[in-house]
Amino acid sequence: MTIHITEHNPPDNIVVPLLQNEALADQLSDLAIRSGQLASALQQDFRADAKETLLLYAQSAGPRFYLLGLGKKSAAPDLQNALRGFCHRNKSKLPLHLGVDLRHFPPADIPRLTDAAVAGMLLGLYDLGLYRTPDPAKPAPQFGSDKASLTILVPGAVLTESRKAAQRGETLARATLTILNFVNAAGNKKIPAQLAEWVRAAGEQAGFTVRVLQEEAIRNEKLELLWQVGKGSPHPPALIVLDYSPKKAAKNTPLIGLVGKGVTFDTGGVSLKPSANMHLMKSDMGGAAAVVGTFIAAAQLKLPVRLFGVIPAAENMIDGSALKPGDVVDSHAGKTIEVTDTDAEGRLILADAISWLLQQQSPEVLIDLATLTGSVIRALGYQAAGLFTANDDLADALARAGEACGERLWRMPLWDEYGADLKSDVADLRNYTGKPVAESISAAKFIEHFTASHPAWAHLDIAGTAFGDSEFAQSKSATGFGVRLLVEFIERWIGPRP
Q: In CATH, which of 1.10.10.10, 2.60.40.1230, 3.40.220.10, 3.40.50.12780 is domain 2-161?
């Protein structure tokens, strides 16, 4: 599908997003004139409530309008979500060529809204049926095909900025679509070796390098926690290493380290999870997916930043050699861990990955992302991810980025008192407190022990935001959370540098 950004020559079918504000009556009057309708009737029939739609046919030859209500929310993330929902609900009957008219919005807002509009329409085309047998009797949607086009109508004064924004929106959307497939894939279709190959292919296409540490290298590198978590599976663990550098990297090019939890399926190990929702544990590599999507977007946008990423990938399974509760294991950082719960495996593999990354590189900022605890869902629900950092500037930058792009974060405490329950009688640390309170904080405090007191480290617990209920699927599915957040953060963090 081709994307055009223009001021004139709209296609015959146009989506018009409308806000529920004081300008609505005049905007509907204008649309009534353009379509040959009665303004009073149109104002009565359409109130611009959120997700409200009205298909408006011109009485004579002319464009067909899809009026789309936004309610009172005018931010770019709200437009993206509204257009994604509209496209998802109607994609089977949308025409080959479709426009989105943004010319009635404030000019200063239009470039960012263009980004959101392009991303929303592309994400709305996503098909969750990865393994569904095609139905030859059901024709494929026209819109979204190779012959289709999407035209965004903007004022001429912001045409250049809007074209750049459209490119950003398309890049972020396509990176997100890639990781939706990663996370939604069945556990037996993405064992660690397969995940590594997917990441390698994504790197070749986008322009970043990928290398994979296999079984022998993991043992040689003393990544014992990763090895212990993965050894109960017939599919050995892997450490996936990603590296992106701009072609014209300067000496002062900032380096950001990213670590993503990559448990491709989590049974809980010997500390077995209940069966009711275990099938959803294919999503336990949402942090890894977010890191991959960020690398794809950064490389394709040619961001002036160096990224170094590490994904510890493993299946947390059960056999005679699986890690047991009460086992004491070594770590890459040299600390010994008493494993009191094998279902608290994510923090173990993150600990090794973070320690190994810091041995290889000295990042200016270090961020890890993980679908880590149910505790963070009980605290924050599904509307925000937990943000853990001792660095106020980093916390503020991440929170502002999340608010701007609609992937919200809420800062949680990292006070030393929360780490007291991690003390072990037989080892340096234990991985689980056994207490039904503040577990997301305890998990963050555990990870903190392996950051070498990095001054700008942040942990994002995305358990409630990476996978959940939505209008786009009958059951829980991937959201793509983290890609837009991290790209937004990186762009703001690096800023203009001398």
A: 3.40.220.10
The position carrying tokens 């009460």 is: 326
Select the CATH number that applies to the domain covering 185-494 from these four: 3.40.50.720, 1.20.58.2190, 3.40.630.10, 3.40.50.980.
3.40.630.10
Question: H-helix or E-strand containing 29?
Answer: helix 24-35
Structure tokens at 305: 């930043």
pLDDT tens digits, one per residue of 94-150: 999 999 999 999 999 999 999 999 999 999 999 999 999 988 888 888 999 999 999
pTM above 0.85, yes or no: yes
* Contact in structure between 473 and 169 (CB atoms under 8 Å): no
Secondary structure (DSSP) of 433-456: ---SSSHHHHHHHHHHTTTTT-TT
- Relative to beta strand 365-370, strand 255-260 is parallel
Residues annotated as catalytic (active site), given as ranges: 273, 347
Query: Quick one: angle between helices 392-405 and 76-90, nearest 10?
Result: 40
Rounded CA-CA distance 267/333 in Å is 26
Token output for 259: 């670590």
Q: What is the dihedral of CA 144, 149, 154, 156, to 10 degrees?
A: 150
* Mean pLDDT, the chain, integer: 96
Beta strands 238-244; 209-213: pairing state: antiparallel
Q: Which of 198, 419, 397, 400 is nearest to 289 (CA)?
A: 198
- Nearest of 21, 90, 20, 85 to residue 55 by alpha carbon: 90
The closest of 81, 82, 495, 488 to 297, measured between CA atoms, is: 488
Beta strands in 114-198 (DSSP E): 149-153
